[in-house]
Amino acid sequence: MLIVGLGNRGEEYTKTRHNAGRIILEYIAKAQEFSDWKNDMKTKSLRAKGEIDSEKFDFMLPETFMNNSGNAVAGVIDGPKKLKNLVVVYDDIDLPLGSLKISFNRSSGGHNGLESVIKRVKSREFVRIRIGVSPHTPTGKLKKPSGEAAVLKFLLGAFKDDELKELKKLSKKITETLVCISSEGKDKAMSLYN
Question: Residues with catalytic annotation?
Answer without folding.
Answer: 18
